[in-house]
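My current task is to audit a protein record that another person submitted. Please read both lines and tell me whether the tokens look consistent with the sequence. Do not assume that whoever made the record got everything right. I have pasted the whole thing underneath without changing anything:

===
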Amino acid sequence: MKRLLLYGLSILALAACNPSELTPAGPQDRALVAVDLSLDIAPVEAGMPATKTDWEPDDPAYDAAQAVKSVAILQFEWEDGSAAGARLIYQYFTADWASAKPVLAASARKNTLVVVANVQGKLPVVDGTTYGDFLERMNYNLLDAIDGPGSSGLWYLAPDGDRYLRMSGTKELEPPVTPSSVGAVTLRRNCAKVVVKVRNDAPEADGLVLDAVQMRDVNRKYYYLAGDAWKDEYSTITPFRFDDPARPYGAAPYEADGKTKTFTFFLPANLRGVSSFVGTDDTRENQSRKSRYPNPGATCFSIFARYGCTDPSDPDNGTPIVYTYYLGANLTDDFNLAPNRKYSYEFFLPGKGGDSDGRVDDMKAVVLPDANAYMLHPPKGGGLERKYSFPVRRAAVFWNSEPNASRDITVGYYGGSNEEEYRLSEHSQWAAEIIWNDVFRDGHRVADSELLEVTEGTGFDPDHAGSQPYVTVKVSKGMYGNALVGIRKTATPGDKSYGDILWSWHLWVTDYDPDVPVTKRDGTYIYPVPGGEVHRYGGTVWQTTYENAFTMDRNLGAVTTVWGVADYYSHGNYYQYGRKDPMYGNGIGSHITQRMATAGNTHISPGNIRYGIHHPTEYLRMDQGRAWNGPGDSDVCDPNKPWADPRVDDPARPAVWLEPGKSVYDPCPPGWQIPVGSTYADLSTGGTGENRHRAWDAQLYGCWYYPEGYPNRDATGAIFFPAAGHIIWNGGSYRFRHTAVNLYMENTALDVQADRNPSNSRTNMNPTAEPVRCVKKNQ
């Protein structure tokens, strides 16, 4: 019988590669030695996943002696005192281990053997590859599915039709290699077995119907040599994750109680660590927090359901709702799926659940408050849409004068115009349109119709009976990017004869959700949230004005915080000071044209602020670097006030329409705003020499910030600012991209470069367009 003993594995950190580009190794010019190599399967612990099965590995009929079908052996010869430097000198493969007579290359040095059972053939590793390189770059193939045959799934499909699970082990051989020098090698299963029991205990009044279950964010990396003491790096740009196809809930049989259904999965190892931001006590709150603050790249299990159903047989009856549970050694802070382990869960639904529970994702329509930008979070499940509605009231707030009941104008504050073309009443008709669209799914730009749901309306005030004052947009799974939607006043539905855009809103489609509740901790600067982090900085303002504040971990509009990728992914959008609309970072030639700013235009209301609102895709400039605003802007623009709003500190300003202390032109989402001028003081001036608070990174093109100095970086973490530079129209180009961190604040701008001291400079409505990073004063 083939035998196996248990040995520990020493695994290095893993990084991405494309194994298919490599050539299988062959024997070098040395003699081959027949060896006595035995493989034992470790005793099957209670519930440990077995290896040869189609359905239930814990079947008592499982025969460990028949668990190994094919075997690949990689022989690494040591050159010094380090296993990482050992080089591949030979690879052996057999498709039938039961009848095999294994051989190795003759060697007078120490060797490390890697034994991988149940693979298709020789591993794609070339002669001379070091053991360290193999572990770091070549130690996996990419899965397309869990249960697919051959290379597309984690099963090895043998010619006889049986399926086998991959196993692996290592052994160090002291010199020389002889027929009797190998002995036993331990194999461990490279996957985890996950058994999930689901039961619907909701009362009949909830009308809760379960439709399907799905394993999500499954690791595509199926390791040849698996260990349980490492964690590979995770990238949001190349996540190497996939969702297993949803399994219909109705197709699974009930257990004896008539309520419970069981679902079994075999999953590649996915070690995502333990979170310090979720408590260890098994309470409802901590279980909720696990789903609210997951470690990036962790595997989760989702239940797709509908509530309020009166006809369960009608798939469109009821409101969709998704329950998501992150897997691991517990239901609270552990996110590890280790190889050769079995995990058993029981998910019982006592009711519909509430919005405060992080495990519950209700697909009901979301109504958003007044702002100039909105973060839209796509649902995680396929086939679902999340709809957002926001009021167009901001247009009336800006263009109308003070409310005048006799004119049927119920909203107005800035008095931008009294012309009929721009004066808005509750009977005014308007049409919405996508101005530009850089929202993608699977690498392709989505159609405007996939974003915009409601394109026409009447009136502007949500509090006015009989009005339809909302634009409705929608997002679906896999969407990411930015878009701009605007409205025009119409004489009749569908008519756009008036022409000018009255107001526009930035749509930021992202899985980043910095709005979840976060509690400040002394000495902590980096806090996990879904899809990323929120940060705090050092400095006086963070102990006073921003005592309970947090800032986003990325520039407004950025798709990722994985630095060094395509610039427009990580640099975010660019904004001219005092303007609410972004000049999207995906190349200014895509959407932005330039126009010499003037004192006004006879067709539009006077002033360049107004012109910029009507023409959100035009870069406004003046000769010789002068301010882009014009003389006709004084009633709606004050360069000395935060983000140019002349009435931002007016105590009579309606808080329902305008967030207190936030400019009417502020480009940040609801609850967030442009930061004050001293926000980055600690980055600019904190520490010197060894205790420096910043360091330039010439490879990633940006600046690292160490909140308590470089020596304390392991305890505090480090925060990265990409060198996005800025846009100033000089033939349509970026300036200082990759060499300067530029960020706008309320009345000033940050400039950090590699070769000079950081500085802040007053903006004075300079036409330069720069990124912004938003702050929330009270999380």
